[in-house]
C-alpha cells in the first residue's frame, strides 16, 4: 500500500457528500476530478455538480430571527445575544437538560468534537445526539460487540479490488457512491429485496422479503457449516462463541429460511459455496440490513457468517460496513453521540471521563452522563421531562427522522428552535433563529472516510459576506454562556490539535495525525498513536480488540419486523436513495441538473400489485401507513417483489417517505426501523 500520496495542491478538496469522499479540484467554482484512492479519478453526478451549491441563490447570508411569526434578517450579534440569553434562562429555570443539541454525520471532525464539548461543558446538558444514530448505529454496535472496536472498513479500499468475491448486503453503491463499483472486480453477490442498479451487476442476486435479512444470514451460515465450509481452525484460534451461535443457526436450514425470506434454498447454498470457494472474500453491509428494530443482531448475523468463513483479520479478506454520510465514521468518534466522549470512549467509563475532563479543564463530576438517543430525544421535545430548546447543526430532521410528521409536531412545541445551515432547510424554516454557516469548500477541516482514513479539506473559496463557521457560532455562544474564550477556539487546526489530545489512548486514537502530515500527503487511517506512526490501514491482523484478542460470534435468532402486514396494511414499504440525491435532499434539490432528473418522490411497485389496487404507471397514488401518508408518482417495475413498494426519502412536505416509517428502535443501537413498515397503496 502506498503510504504517501502527492501533496494536495491549490483547490484540491473532497466532495461534500458521501463517505467515499472522492478527491476533486475546485478551480474557481468549477469541479475537476482528482485521482484519489477511493475514486481513482471518478466522480458521480452529485460530485460533478457540487460547485453549484457554492453559488446557489438559496444561500443564506444573514441570520434570521422569528418576529411576529416571520423569519426576519438580524445581525449576528443580535441573533447570538438572543439565543445565548434564552439558553441561559432555560438552563437556570428548567435545568441543564432543558436544552438539547442535535448534530450530523456530515460535520467535520472538528465540529463534531466541539459540538460535544459545547453541549457537555458550556450547556452542561446530557441531551446531545446526532443523525448518525439513524444511519450507522447498528453496524457500530455490532462491530463493537464482535471485534471490540468499530471502524467501518477495517481495511483499505484497495483490498476490495483484489478480492475474489464480495457479498454486498443491503447496499446500492451503483446509485449511492458509483465510483465505488470500480473496486468490485471479483464475483459479486448482492442481497437486496429490489433489483437495484447494483444487483443488475451481480453474479448472484438474492431478494429476501424486507425485514428478513437476519433469517437469510442464518440460512447461509447453516449452509456453510452443513456443506463443510466452516473454518474451524480459524474459529478455534481467533474467535469465541461459535457453539452458542450455531445452536440457533442449526435450526435455520435453508429450506426453512426459504419459507421466511422467499430466497431459494439452492441460492443460499450457492452463495455459501461462492464465498467459501473464493481465494479471498469480503462481506460488506449497508443500511438495508442495519436500519431495523433488530439491526444490531442482523449485522451480527452477517459478521457470524464472515467469522465462520475465516474472513475478518485475514490478509486480503474481511468484513466491513459501508458508511453513508460524508463523515459518518468521524462523526461517531468525537463525542456528539449521546453515549460517547472523544476518542470513541464510553461516557460511562470513569477513566475516560477523568481523562477527557482533564483535557477540557473541567472537573470530571461536572460532565453529564449519557443522554437520550436521537429518536427518543426528538420524541421527548416539549414534554414535561423533555428539552424545551433545541440547537440543530448539519441535520434536517423534519425530512430525515422516522415518523417525520410527529417529529415536526414535537419541534413546534419548543420554546426555542435554533438551526445552523447554509440554506433554509425544511427544519430551518420552522426555527426561531437561523444562523447562516459556511459549507464544504469555504472552510478547512478534516473528515474520516469509510476506510477510517483522515482527510484534510482546505479552504478552496472564500465564504460570502455575512456567513460564519459553526465553530465561530459555538465560540460566540460559549463566551456568552460564561465560558473562557480559549476553551472554544474557532480555528479548525487548533480545534483538531485539542481533538488529538482528547483522543489519545482511546479506541479511535488520532494523536499522531497532524494537519502538516495530511498536507504532506501522508495516508493516515486511525489509530495513529504517534506522529511517527504510519497509521493502521489494516486492523485485526494479529488480534481483535477484545481483551483476549478474540472476535465474538453473536448468538442471534430471527425476529420479524416490528410491524407485520395485515388486511388494512398489506404491503411492505422500504426506503432508500436514488442516484441524483443525497440524504434529505436539502443540498441536491438545489442543483438544477439533479432536481430536473429526479424532481419528486415516486413509489416503485410491481405492475400486478399496482393493478390490484387500481393505480396506473405514471399516475399518482397515496402510500398510507399507521403514521401518515405520502403522495407519490407510480413507477411500475416488473422486477419488484409483489409484496413490496419502495420510496426514496429525499423529498419534502407531503412527499416525505418518512411520514410513513416506523420508529421502532433496536434495543442496542436505538436505530429506528427505517427499512420496513406496513402500508397500503391507493389511488390518489
Ligand atoms: Fe464521490 Fe460520493 Fe461525491 Fe459521488 S457523492 S462524487 S460517490 S463522494
From TrEMBL:
CDD domains assigned to the protein according to its UniProt record, in alphabetical order? MopB_CT_Fdh-Nap-like (cd00508)
Q: Which Gene3D superfamilies does the entry mention?
A: 2.40.40.20, 3.40.50.740, ADC-like domains (2.20.25.90), Dimethylsulfoxide Reductase, domain 2 (3.40.228.10)
Q: Which is one Pfam family of this protein? A: Molydop_binding
Domain of life, per UniProt, equals Bacteria
What Gene Ontology molecular function terms does this protein carry? 4 iron, 4 sulfur cluster binding; metal ion binding; molybdopterin cofactor binding; NADH dehydrogenase activity
Any one GO BP annotation for this protein: respiratory electron transport chain
> Entry's InterPro entries?
Asp_de-COase-like_dom_sf, MoPterin_dinucl-bd_dom, Mopterin_OxRdtase, Mopterin_OxRdtase_4Fe-4S_dom, Prok_molybdopt-oxidoreductase
Write out the transmembrane intervals.
Answer: none
Keyword tags: 4Fe-4S, Iron, Iron-sulfur, Metal-binding
Q: Which residues form the 4Fe-4S Mo/W bis-MGD-type domain?
A: 8-56
Q: Which cellular component, as a GO term, is one annotated location?
A: membrane
UniProt name for this protein: Molybdopterin oxidoreductase
Query: What organism is this sequence from?
Result: Actinokineospora globicatena
Amino acid at each position: 500500500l502506498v503510504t504517501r500520496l502527492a501533496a494536495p495542491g491549490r483547490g484540491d478538496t473532497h466532495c461534500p457528500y458521501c463517505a467515499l469522499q472522492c478527491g476533486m479540484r475546485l478551480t474557481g467554482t468549477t469541479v475537476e476530478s482528482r485521482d484519489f484512492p477511493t475514486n481513482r479519478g471518478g466522480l458521480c453526478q452529485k460530485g460533478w455538480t457540487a460547485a453549484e451549491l457554492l453559488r446557489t441563490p438559496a444561500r443564506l447570508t444573514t441570520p434570521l430571527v422569528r418576529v411576529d411569526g416571520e423569519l426576519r434578517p438580524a445581525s449576528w450579534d443580535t441573533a447570538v445575544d438572543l439565543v445565548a440569553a434564552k439558553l441561559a434562562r432555560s438552563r437556570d429555570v428548567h435545568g441543564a437538560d432543558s436544552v438539547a443539541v442535535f448534530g450530523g454525520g456530515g460535520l467535520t471532525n472538528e465540529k463534531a468534537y466541539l459540538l460535544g464539548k459545547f453541549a457537555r461543558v458550556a450547556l452542561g446538558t446530557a441531551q446531545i445526539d446526532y443523525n448518525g444514530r439513524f444511519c450507522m448505529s447498528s453496524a457500530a454496535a455490532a462491530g463493537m460487540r464482535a471485534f471490540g472496536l468499530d471502524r467501518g472498513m477495517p481495511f483499505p479500499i484497495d483490498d476490495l479490488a483484489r478480492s475474489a468475491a464480495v457479498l454486498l448486503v443491503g447496499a446500492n453503491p451503483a446509485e449511492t457512491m458509483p465510483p465505488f463499483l470500480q473496486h468490485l472486480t471479483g464475483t459479486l453477490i448482492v442481497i437486496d429485496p429490489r433489483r437495484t442498479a447494483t444487483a443488475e451487476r451481480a453474479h448472484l442476486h438474492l431478494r429476501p422479503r424486507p425485514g428478513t435479512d437476519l433469517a437469510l444470514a442464518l440460512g447461509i451460515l447453516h449452509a456453510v457449516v452443513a456443506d463443510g465450509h466452516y473454518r474451524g481452525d480459524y474459529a478455534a484460534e481467533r474467535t469465541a462463541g461459535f457453539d452458542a451461535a450455531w445452536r440457533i443457526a442449526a435450526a435455520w436450514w435453508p429450506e426453512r429460511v426459504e419459507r421466511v425470506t422467499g430466497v431459494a434454498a439452492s441460492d443460499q447454498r450457492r452463495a455459501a459455496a461462492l464465498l467459501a470457494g473464493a481465494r479471498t472474500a469480503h462481506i460488506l453491509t449497508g443500511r438495508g440490513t442495519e436500519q431495523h428494530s433488530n439491526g444490531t443482531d442482523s449485522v451480527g448475523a452477517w459478521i457470524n457468517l464472515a467469522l465462520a468463513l475465516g474472513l475478518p483479520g485475514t490478509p486480503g479478506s474481511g468484513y466491513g460496513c459501508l458508511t453513508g454520510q460524508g463523515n459518518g465514521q468521524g462523526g461517531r468518534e468525537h463525542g456528539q453521540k449521546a453515549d460517547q466522549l472523544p476518542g470513541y470512549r464510553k461516557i460511562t467509563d470513569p477513566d475516560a471521563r477523568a481523562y477527557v475532563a482533564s483535557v477540557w479543564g473541567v472537573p470530571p463530576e461536572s460532565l453529564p452522563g449519557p443522554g437520550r438517543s436521537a429518536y427518543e430525544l426528538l420524541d421527548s421535545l416539549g414534554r414535561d421531562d423533555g428539552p424545551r430548546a433545541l440547537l440543530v447543526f448539519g441535520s434536517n430532521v423534519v425530512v430525515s427522522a422516522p415518523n417525520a410528521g410527529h417529529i415536526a409536531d414535537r419541534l413546534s412545541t419548543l420554546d426555542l428552535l435554533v438551526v445552523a445551515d447554509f440554506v433554509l432547510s425544511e427544519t430551518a424554516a420552522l426555527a426561531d433563529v437561523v444562523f447562516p454557516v459556511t459549507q464544504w469548500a469555504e472552510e478547512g477541516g478534516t473528515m474520516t472516510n469509510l476506510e477510517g482514513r483522515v482527510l484534510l479539506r482546505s479552504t478552496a473559496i472564500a465564504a460570502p459576506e455575512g456567513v460564519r463557521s459553526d465553530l465561530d457560532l459555538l465560540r460566540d455562544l460559549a463566551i456568552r454562556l460564561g465560558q473562557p474564550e480559549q476553551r472554544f477556539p474557532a480555528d479548525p487546526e487548533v480545534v483538531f490539535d485539542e481533538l488529538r489530545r482528547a483522543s489519545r489512548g482511546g479506541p479511535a486514537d488520532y494523536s499522531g495525525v497532524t494537519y502538516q502530515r495530511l498536507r504532506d500527503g501522508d495516508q493516515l487511517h486511525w489509530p495513529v498513536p504517534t506522529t511517527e506512526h504510519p497509521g493502521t490501514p489494516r486492523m485485526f491482523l494479529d488480534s481483535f480488540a477484545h481483551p483476549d484478542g478474540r472476535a465474538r460470534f453473536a448468538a442471534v435468532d430471527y425476529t420479524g419486523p416490528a410491524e407485520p402486514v395485515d388486511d388494512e396494511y398489506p404491503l411492505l414499504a422500504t426506503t432508500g436513495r436514488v442516484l441524483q440525491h443525497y440524504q434529505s435532499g436539502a443540498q441536491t434539490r438545489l442543483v438544477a441538473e439533479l432536481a430536473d432528473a429526479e424532481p419528486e418522490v415516486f413509489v416503485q411497485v410491481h405492475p400486478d400489485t399496482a393493478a390490484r389496487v387500481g393505480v396506473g404507471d405514471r399516475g399518482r397514488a397515496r402510500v398510507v401507513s399507521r403514521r401518515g401518508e405520502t403522495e407519490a408518482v407510480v413507477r411500475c417495475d416488473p422486477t419488484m417483489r409483489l409484496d413490496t413498494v419502495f420510496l426514496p426519502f429525499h423529498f419534502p412536505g407531503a412527499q416525505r417517505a418518512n411520514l410513513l416509517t416506523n420508529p421502532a428502535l433496536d434495543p442496542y443501537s436505538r436505530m429506528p426501523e427505517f427499512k420496513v413498515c406496513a402500508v397500503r397503496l391507493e389511488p390518489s
